[in-house]
Design a protein that fits this description.
Mean pLDDT: 96
Low-confidence stretches: none
Largest sheet: 6 strands, mixed
Bound molecules: coenzyme A
CATH topology of the largest domain: Rossmann fold
Structural class: alpha/beta
Length: 344
């Protein structure tokens, strides 16, 4: 696929190190082989070297060049447990409990490697639920400075170039916050715009806040929440185009946009769609994926200080490798964000 090939080529120069904790999964080992063969990132696997070697031989997977870290013999385990106990102190975390978690939960341990700077990002979720991967990100890493909301996006690659950015759309939040507040919707929009710019290289993100109402045609509690998000973005003085509330057809189809929201810079040309809640978002992306035969890349967790990315449990080894490429891109974005914050 052109999009992921371009992404891999773009991130390759940085040679980011990505940790894959789910080494009991053949798909994950195969993905590691794929990434190493394509050469766009370095890979760290979590687990016992002997077991990984035996499994790789059994499945005929070549893992030459991979680094393996075993939590039980990890040389910075004390430091990691102290860090985690300190972070979760108010929740009653102790060094002993931290040790128990870090030696029994590979995704938490992998997030720990990222927290300590031993890896640039983590990709998990082939065998782990989304909630567990996101929890590891929230508890071990946490939201980045200047941002309160962790959310997720899907990049939809459609065969309908008349919509979005030549057929590409960024949708949020399809995976984390069940009922976002106005403030959270505003945060989701900002971070989706960053994803559109950095991961997709969209030059002109245009954000539509979706609803069943367009510009006052309907009313209700959820419409008020969406309008609240728009007021917040106005106050924040953001540099991208945004508008709403609007129905999906007004957001995407120029003639409908002109009719329902005349004068809008976004209506009819939206390429970033912010859904009012998780039900609408999750159902919406799956409908497009199936009916339009579109590729849906995600859920891409965003807003953490360092990238911990989730996978769909139905993923293939190719999907895992693609998300590793997004993780590299997010790690680069995180470096740029930190540099900019340091300058301020
Ligand atoms: C994401 C999710 C797992 C978080 O659950 P949770 O029980 O709040 O998780 P935790 O208690 O471990 O959260 C740790 C901290 O992060 C905070 N937090 C939770 N969600 C957050 C978010 N979206 N952004 C920022 N912080 C968040 C919590 O308030 C908590 O803070 P505290 O330690 O100061 O109290 C939960 O919202 C969820 O299950 N979402 C749906 C995920 C899902 O099933 N998606 C399926 C579609 S792909």
């Amino acid at each position: 696929m052109r999009f992921t090939e371009d992404l891999k080529a773009r991130v390759s120069k940085a040679q980011k190190k990505i940790v894959l904790p789910e080494t009991n999964s053949r798909r994950v080992l195969k993905a590691a082989e794929r990434v190493l063969a394509e050469g766009f990132a370095k890979i760290v696997l979590v687990g016992k070297l002997d077991k990984i070697k035996t499994d790789a031989a059994k499945y005929q997977i070549d893992l030459t060049g991979v680094e393996v870290v075993d939590p039980e013999t990890y040389y910075r385990m004390d430091e990691l447990c102290e860090y985690f106990a300190e972070r979760r102190k108010k929740k009653g975390m102790t060094v002993e409990k931290a040790y128990e978690i870090m030696t029994s939960n590979n995704t938490f341990f992998a997030a720990g490697l990222v927290a300590l700077g031993e890896a640039d990002g983590c990709v998990s979720g082939a065998d782990t639920t989304s909630a567990d991967v996101i929890r590891a990100g929230l508890q071990v890493i946490g939201p980045r400075q200047g941002n309160k909301t962790v959310s997720s996006a899907f990049i939809l690659l459609t065969n309908t170039p008349q919509y979005g950015d030549n057929g590409i759309l960024v949708l949020g939040d399809c995976g984390v916050i069940p009922n976002p507040t106005s403030e959270q919707l505003a945060d989701i929009a900002c971070i989706c715009v960053e994803r559109a710019q950095r991961t997709v290289q969209m030059l002109n993100p245009k954000v539509a806040f979706l609803s069943y109402s367009t510009k006052g045609s309907g009313s209700g509690e959820s419409v008020d929440i969406v309008r609240g998000a728009i007021d917040i973005l106005k106050e924040r003085n953001v540099e991208f185009d945004f508008d709403g509330e609007m129905q999906a057809d007004a957001a995407l189809v120029p003639e409908v946009g002109e009719r329902k929201a005349p004068g809008s810079r976004v209506a009819g040309h939206a390429n970033v769609l912010i859904f009012p809640n998780l039900d609408a978002a999750n159902i919406g992306y799956k409908m497009v994926q199936r009916f339009a035969n579109a590729t849906a890349l995600g859920p891409l967790v965003q807003g953490l200080d360092k990238p911990i990315l989730d996978l769909s449990r139905g993923c293939s080894s190719e999907d895992v490798a693609d998300v590793v490429a997004v993780c590299c891109s997010d790690a680069i974005t995180s470096d740029i964000y930190k540099k900019n914050m340091a300058k301020q």
